[in-house]
Amino acid sequence: MSTSELPASHAELMDGVYRWQRHIYDLTRKYYLLGRDQMIAGLDVPPGGTVLELGCGTGRNIVLAARRYPDARFFGLDISTEMLETARASIAREGLSDRVALARGDATDFDANGLFGIESFDRIFVSYSLSMIPGWEKTVSAALAALAPGGSLHVVDFGQQEGLPGWFRTLLRGWLRKFHVAPRESLRDVLESESERTGSTFRFRTLYRGYAWLAVIRQPKG
Question: Methyltransferase domain: which residues (predicted)?
Answer without folding.
Answer: 51-151
